[in-house]
Automatic annotation (TrEMBL):
Transmembrane segments: 418-437
InterPro entries assigned: Kinase-like_dom_sf (IPR011009), Prot_kinase_dom (IPR000719), Ser/Thr_kinase_AS (IPR008271)
Keyword Membrane annotated: yes
Compositionally biased intervals (Low complexity): 388-402
Name under which the protein is recorded: non-specific serine/threonine protein kinase
EC top class, as a word: transferase
Length: 440
C-alpha cells in the first residue's frame, strides 16, 4: 500500500507533475473516494507562499478545478482537488489534431464560463494554456472542461511575489502587456484564451509574437485557414494587442461567441466524432474502485478454493520423527483368521435373556480379539458379557446428624433508628389530614 499522508490521504500513484509539485492519485480515507493530491516538492519560503496562495483559492464552479482541502505532515504539505481523468486539451489534440469548429466553440464557451467565475472572485489566473485546461473522461458524450492550476494566480491588489519586470507564466501565451511588466489584469487571461482557441482549431501552437506584430502593423488579419469567419471575429476581439481594444470581461466574450455559433454552417457527416479517453490509467494492484483491497495470500486467486495440502511422505522405517519420537516399521500383514463361533457363556443362577445384549464398549469377559493387520477388517463378533444387574444403594452408615439448610433470608428492612421516626411522622401527617377534613 502507499504512504498515508497526515493520517488521511493514501498516495496511490503519480499521475502528473507541475512547476512546484507532483500530482498523485490519492485515496481520501475520510470521504471514501479518489482525489488528485498535489504534493509540494520544495520547502523554501517563496515556493511555500505560492503554495499557500494556490490552496487558498476556493471557487465552486462546474468548469473550475480549484483546491478542495489541504494537509500538512512534518515538512511536507499537499492540497487535494477532484480527480479529472480525461487529460488536458493537449491530449485531445495529440489524438485528433485540429478539432471541428462547433466542438471548439463548446469548449471555448465552458472555458469562458469558468474564467468568468474566477474573475468574479477577483483572481487573475495568469497561466491559461492547453496543459492547464483539463477534461472529464466523457467518451463520445458532451465534453466537460475544467480550468485548473492556480499556482501563479493572484488576486488583484495583492502584493506580487516577483520583481516588477519579471514575467511569470508560460512562454507563447503571454499577453503583450505582460512583457512590459504591467500589473496582472483580467484582459491578459482573455488574450491567452484566444491563443488556446487557435491551438484547438489549427492543431498546433500559434506564433503569438508574429500575430501581435501583424495586428499592430496591418490591423485585424483575415481569418486563418480552417477558422469560420464568424468565429474569427470573436477570436480577433480576444487577440487584440491593445488591452483597451480587447474584450474586457469573459462574460462579454461569451455572449459574442453565442451569437457567432448561430452563424456557423451546419456540421457535415464527414467530421469524425471526438472521444475523450481516460488518460489516468488503471489502478495499481491492491486498489479497487472502492479503495484499497486486501491482497490475497500467495496461491489464492479470486473465487478459487485454497489448495489442498500435499500429503506428507511416509517416513522410512526406523527414522526419527519431528517430535523426538521414533517411527516403527508397520507389522507384517497376516491373513485374516476364520471367524469362530463365540464361546459359551459362563453358567449363572439366572436364565439367559432371550435376546443377546448390545455389545459393550469395554468388554469385561471373554478372550482377547485377534490383532488384525492395518487396512483389513474381520467379521464382528460380540464379546460375551454377564447379565445386567441393577446396582443397589449402599446401606446408611452411622454418622453425625445432617444439618438442615438455612432458610432463605428476606430483604432486610430499614434500621430501627430510621423506621421509628418515619412511622411517627406518617402518623402525624395522617392526624393533621384527618383534622383538616373535619374542619371543612
Amino acid at each position: 500500500m502507499g504512504e498515508v499522508f497526515a493520517g488521511r490521504y493514501e498516495l496511490v500513484d503519480p499521475i502528473g507533475r507541475g512547476g512546484v509539485g507532483a500530482v498523485w492519485r490519492a485515496w481520501d480515507q475520510r470521504r471514501r473516494r479518489y482525489v488528485a493530491a498535489k504534493v509540494l516538492q520544495q520547502s523554501d519560503a517563496h515556493t511555500l507562499l505560492r503554495f499557500v496562495r494556490e490552496q487558498a483559492v476556493r471557487i465552486d464552479h462546474p468548469h473550475v478545478l480549484a483546491p478542495a482541502s489541504w494537509a500538512a505532515d512534518d515538512d511536507k504539505v499537499l492540497f487535494t482537488m477532484d480527480l479529472v481523468g480525461g487529460g488536458s486539451l493537449a491530449h485531445v489534440i495529440g489524438d485528433y489534431g485540429p478539432l471541428p469548429p462547433r466542438f471548439v466553440c463548446l469548449l471555448l464557451d465552458q472555458l469562458l464560463s469558468g474564467l468568468a467565475a474566477v474573475h468574479a472572485e477577483g483572481v487573475v489566473h495568469r497561466d491559461i494554456k492547453p496543459a492547464n485546461v483539463l477534461l472529464e473522461a466523457t467518451g463520445r458524450g458532451r465534453p466537460h472542461l475544467r480550468l485548473s492550476d492556480f499556482g501563479i494566480s493572484m488576486r488583484k491588489g495583492e502584493p506580487r511575489l516577483t520583481e516588477t519586470h519579471y514575467v511569470v507564466g508560460t512562454p507563447g501565451y503571454f499577453a503583450p502587456e505582460q512583457l512590459t511588466g504591467a500589473e496582472p489584469d483580467f484582459p491578459a487571461d482573455l488574450f491567452a484564451v484566444g491563443l488556446v482557441a487557435l491551438y484547438l482549431l489549427q492543431g498546433r501552437k500559434p506564433d503569438s509574437q508574429a500575430l501581435v506584430e501583424h495586428f499592430r502593423a496591418h490591423g485585424t488579419p483575415c481569418a486563418p485557414q480552417g477558422v469560420p469567419e464568424p468565429l474569427w471575429q470573436v477570436l480577433a476581439g480576444l487577440l487584440q494587442p491593445d488591452p483597451e481594444a480587447r474584450f474586457r470581461t469573459a462574460t462579454g466574450a461569451r455572449k459574442a461567441l453565442a451569437a457567432a455559433v448561430e452563424l456557423l454552417p451546419d456540421p457535415t457527416g464527414e467530421e469524425e466524432p471526438v472521444e475523450v479517453f481516460d488518460q489516468v490509467g488503471p489502478l495499481p494492484p491492491g486498489y479497487g474502485p472502492d479503495g484499497p483491497v486486501a491482497a490475497p495470500p500467495p496461491g489464492y486467486g479470486p473465487w478459487s478454493p485454497p489448495p489442498s495440502p500435499a500429503p506428507a511422505p511416509a517416513p522410512p522405517a526406523g527414522a526419527a520423527s519431528g517430535t523426538s519420537g521414533f517411527h516403527l516399521a508397520p507389522p507384517p500383514a497376516r491373513p485374516a483368521p476364520a471367524a469362530s463361533p463365540p464361546p459359551a457363556a459362563a453358567p449363572s443362577a439366572s436364565p439367559a435373556p432371550s435376546t443377546p445384549p448390545a455389545p459393550s464398549a469395554f468388554p469385561v469377559a471373554g478372550p482377547a480379539a485377534p490383532v488384525q493387520p492395518y487396512g483389513s477388517y474381520a467379521p464382528y463378533a460380540p464379546h460375551p458379557t454377564a447379565p445386567y444387574t441393577a446396582p443397589t444403594a449402599p446401606a446408611p452408615t452411622a454418622g453425625p446428624a445432617a444439618v438442615p439448610a438455612p432458610a432463605p433470608r428476606g430483604r432486610p428492612g430499614p434500621p430501627r433508628a430510621v423506621a421509628v421516626p418515619v412511622v411517627l411522622l406518617a402518623l402525624v401527617c395522617y392526624a393533621v389530614g384527618f383534622w383538616a377534613l373535619t374542619r371543612i
